């Protein structure tokens, strides 16, 4: 938005707001032109217009069909997704086991550190009593 643009160039906007607006308008115009050119270039390179027309034709022909052309969509998706999801679940379980083992080792380390601190505190107290 223009307001965001003006906020980015606040000092310049305060000095010359009309010039800032002009720069913004030119920037937007050039950006729109550039985007349109890029889209047209992609359409031309990929022969997309012909492909879109053929896709429209297929969609129109499919409207008259009662049954899906490739089977039941839910089953088709399920048959391709289930193996992937099972594999991913196995991977996540492996990572979970590794993290749990890591956490167990860290917890042991923390407990050992606490024991060491407690031992040092007892030693300090004993030496303090002996000194007194």
Automatic annotation (TrEMBL):
Location in or out of the cell: Chromosome, Centromere, Kinetochore; Nucleus
Pfam families assigned to the protein according to its UniProt record, in alphabetical order: Nnf1
InterPro entries the UniProt entry points to: PMF1/Nnf1
GO biological process: cell division; chromosome segregation
Coiled-coil region: none
GO CC list: MIS12/MIND type complex; nucleus
Entry keywords, A to Z: Cell cycle, Cell division, Centromere, Chromosome, Kinetochore, Mitosis, Nucleus
Entry-linked PANTHER family: POLYAMINE-MODULATED FACTOR 1
Protein name per Swiss-Prot or TrEMBL: Polyamine-modulated factor 1
Protein's organism: Opisthocomus hoazin (Hoatzin)
């Amino acid at each position: 938005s223009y307001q965001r643009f003006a906020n980015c160039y606040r000092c310049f906007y305060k000095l010359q707001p009309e010039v800032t607006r002009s720069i913004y308008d030119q920037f937007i115009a050039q950006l729109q032109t550039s985007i349109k050119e890029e889209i047209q270039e992609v359409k031309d390179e990929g022969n997309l217009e012909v492909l879109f027309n053929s896709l429209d034709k297929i969609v129109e022909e499919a409207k008259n069909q009662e049954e899906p052309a490739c089977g039941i969509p839910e089953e088709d998706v399920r048959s391709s997704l289930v193996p992937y999801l099972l594999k991913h679940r196995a991977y996540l379980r492996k990572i979970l086991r590794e993290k749990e083992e890591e956490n167990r080792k860290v917890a042991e380390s923390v407990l050992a550190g606490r024991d060491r601190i407690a031992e040092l505190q007892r030693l300090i107290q004993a030496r303090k009593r002996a000194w007194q």
